[in-house]
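Kindly go through the following sequence and its backbone structure tokens. Advise at your convenience whether the structure tokens fit the sequence:

___
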Amino acid sequence: MSFALALVIKFAAGLLADRLFGEVRRFHPLVGFGRWARAVETGSRRIVGEHRFAGLLAWALAVLPWVALALWARTLHPLAHWPIDIALLYFSLGGRSLAEHAEAIAVPLAAGQLTEARERVGWIVSRDTRELDPAGVARAGTESVLENGNDAVFGALFWFLLGGGAGALLFRLANTLDAMWGYRTPRYLRFGWAAARIDDVLNAAPARLTALTYALLGNTRRALACWRAQAPAWDSPNAGPVMAAGAGAIGVALGGAAIYYGRVEERPPLGEGAQPDASSIRAAVTLVRRGVLLWLGMTTLAAIAVHFAGVTHA
């Protein structure tokens, strides 16, 4: 079997596993990785200090041994790459979990159960959700789905296509460290700099492909216009294109003021159209799901073309 066809079979198998099983309910590997990362952080701060080099060293110690282990494990048997790559892609994906979290917000929000909707959206966003009105809950949920469509789905798929299971693992662990260390707080302003910058680099290409995917599957003209006009105003070079294009694609107005760590942040606008509600959250989930099918279809066609091109050449 050609490398291209093997890759697309693994690609499809990883997606199917995520669809069928979702995230691991008990003994999730990321829980163990989080403990490892906290231990690395403590040791690095104690031995090296608080500066940027300490953060870079900690990032390398936290991530690279596991990527090296994944690469080594593939060499243990000629067929070892099959289960390892599929398992690592499944581990790196969070598509079903994202949809479940989104629906857990949309259901009480649509039913007028604002307290529960606030609590549920607080599980997946870092902003203060205690005083959000219904539109604020919908805004936070929709933005999170659109952004995590890249972080939890398309970014992992992109790096899997480039580097197999080890590539997907590298992306997922780097993204996790950004979520742990990449904040501009006094504690992480210098130490977390490397984690934030590395995540920006790894996300640069997938974020723009995610934005293009959203644009192609929604209102393309509006999505591209919002991407072009609104993304540059966002601090994050990758979240801006993803959320602006996604909001434009589904025709909803996002962005605006939000409270982070007790401080109100006036964020630039995203998208244009109606105020968000429960249907906006579901529309964002649908956009991600259709994007996955598009990526699967395009990857399959590319693999078939490469396979037959190789056969013809031989």
Strands lie at 254-260, 263-270.
